[in-house]
Predict the 3D structure of the following.
Amino acid sequence: MNPKKVRRDQVHQLEDLPNIGKAMASDLHLLGIHTPEQLIGRNAFEMHEALCAKTGQRHDPCVIDVFMSIVHFANGGEALPWWSFTQERKRMLHRS
């Protein structure tokens, strides 16, 4: 969903989260994540690695940005576009 349209009190399913549509919701289901609450305390980088392992393909690093955005939101942060997390992801990957 477009982050500008997200209302925290109306988030009940994965597709209600910022930046999540049907395809990304399916990816989250592959990871065993079926509710927004299951994102609390998750690590976006670990989620990305798990998704790559489950699907047998390397997913674009921007998927990490999306995961960062929904984990941020689940942990009480504001609904932000996924690209708001790109620089943070790059910094974190560069440190590794």
Observations:
- Residues 1 and 16 are 6 Å apart (CA to CA).
